[in-house]
From TrEMBL:
Assigned EC number: 2.2.1.2
Similarity comment: Belongs to the transaldolase family. Type 3B subfamily.
Keyword RNA-binding appears in the UniProt entry: no
Chief location bin: cytoplasm
PANTHER family assigned to the protein according to its UniProt record, in alphabetical order: FRUCTOSE-6-PHOSPHATE ALDOLASE 1-RELATED, TRANSALDOLASE
Protein name, per record: Probable transaldolase
InterPro entries assigned to the protein according to its UniProt record, in alphabetical order: Aldolase_TIM, TAL/FSA, Transaldolase_3B, Transaldolase_3B/F6P_aldolase, Transaldolase_AS, TSA/FSA_arc/bac
Primary role: Transaldolase is important for the balance of metabolites in the pentose-phosphate pathway.
Single Gene Ontology BP annotation: ketone catabolic process
Natural source organism: Qipengyuania algicida
Compartments in which it is found: Cytoplasm
Length: 219
């Protein structure tokens, strides 16, 4: 499963990228607002840090407007992935852009039927929002499971990009079901390394090491 960082914070992206933990980045208008940065400028900077897809979202709601915005966004770098909402206008835009060889992430997916439409429109990625699904009394994992089944039934190539991932259990379940990608805030990604027994183990080893009175020679 590929990991994308769901953020527009440059320092966090750089850190995760240098650690080899991420394969791409997703942003949205709320994350751009949170970063306090200029959209075009920060997107360009992110595209220079990671080799993989960097999702940048259009804000127009009509096909022509989305195409005009996508035209500008796709010039930023080769690894820009245009994010469009899961509406009929967004799907029309998706078909046109992917037909031209541009990566598209169809976002705000909340049902398996919506995911079916995104695949039929040739989306590179479709983003089911697990956390927001859970927040509203549905099981986000049921959605991922249905999508995996349907995409496999018809050998759709659209990648399932599990989004709105809030905690380690979301990540684990996505990996079990076989989501192609998951995008999560940096804190959730680094938090996957945490385990109380790892900390306890380190503590024990270091205590015994201190008793040996030795040190490892370094240059
Ligand atoms: C995905 O691309 C979105 O940016 C994101 O995952 C939304 O997550 P949220 O529900 O935590 O805002």
């Amino acid at each position: 499963m590929k990991f994308f960082a769901d953020t527009a914070e440059i320092d966090a992206i750089r850190e995760l990228s240098e650690a080899g933990l991420i394969d791409g980045v997703t942003t949205n208008p709320s994350l751009i607002h949170k970063s306090g940065r200029d959209f075009m400028e920060v997107t360009k900077e992110i595209c220079g840090i990671v080799d993989g897809p960097v999702s940048a979202e259009v804000v127009a709601l009509d096909h022509d407007g989305m195409m005009r915005e996508a035209e500008t966004l796709r010039k930023i770098a080769d690894n820009v992935c245009i994010k469009v909402p899961l509406t009929i206008e967004g799907l029309k835009t998706c078909r046109k852009l992917t037909g031209d060889g541009t990566m598209v992430n169809v976002t705000l997916c909340f049902s398996a039927n919506q995911a079916l439409l995104a695949a039929k429109a040739g989306a590179t990625f479709v983003s089911p929002f697990i956390g927001r699904h859970d927040d509203n009394g549905f099981d986000g994992m049921d959605l991922i499971r249905d999508m995996r089944l349907i995409y496999d039934n018809y050998a759709f190539e659209t990648e399932i990009l599990a989004a709105s991932v809030r905690h380690p259990v979301h990540v684990l379940e996505c990996a079990r079901i076989g989501a192609d990608v998951m995008t999560a805030p940096p804190k959730v990604i680094t938090g996957l390394a945490n385990h109380v027994l790892t900390d306890k183990g380190i503590e024990g080893f270091l205590a015994d090491w201190a008793k040996t009175g030795q040190s490892i020679p370094t240059a």
